[in-house]
Amino acid sequence: MEEKKRSELTNEELLQEAKKMKSASIINALLIGFLIGIVFFSVMKNTWGFLTLIPLFFIYKLINNSKYKNSELENLLRERNLK
């Protein structure tokens, strides 16, 4: 099934998408906290390498990806006066 563009969604579908994004942002926050814990543990053990660099890369990707998607959805909600 082909996924619709966000601008083509109905108001109800757009509100459901907003709920999904809210739960996804909570999960992203938990993952970022876990990865920061791994980096902190690595720094405390004085080990620099993949154990430190890989979580930093994933943190960067999670933060950048969520900013783009959230801003697009918030703009659509404001345009339709749903929020």
TrEMBL record:
Keywords annotated in UniProt: Membrane, Transmembrane, Transmembrane helix
Highest taxon listed in the record's lineage: Bacteria
Bilayer-spanning residue ranges: 21-41, 47-63
Name of the protein in its database record: FUSC family protein
